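N-acetyltransferase domain-containing protein (Mariprofundus ferrooxydans PV-1), 138 aa
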Amino acid sequence: MSIKYKINTMISVDQFIELLNESTLGERRPIDDRECMEGMVSNSNFVVTAWDDEKMIGIARSITDFSYACYLSDLAVHKHYQKKGVGKKLQIITQEQLGPKCKLMLIAAPAANAYYEHIGFTNNPRCWVLDRDQDISS
């Protein structure tokens, strides 16, 4: 198996959705909302992908300033390629492109907590989420 990794290679929304479905991450993403998915692809400013020939089999999709913070919003690996180091390599390449003080941050699915701890991430309980439909005006 010869996996090639690419930085900021253009991908289609269909390729992204297909990978999310094949990785199980599609269960937690709005894959039926094409407009949202298009925004997710086009507005990411740093993407590392993994390819087996012409098939995208992994993605690390981030939003970053490259200096202080990098939010890894999607890390997905096709289920047939999981547990082969693809996800870890995607994160290593992501981190190599960031400045020396830039932190890599993510919100893990509950089932993935052990994985992130295993590869060196530390748990930070200070994450807060504000859903779009919440009223914060009062």
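Residues 13 and 120 are 31 Å apart (CA to CA). The helical segments are 13-23, 34-42, 86-96, 113-118. ok done for today
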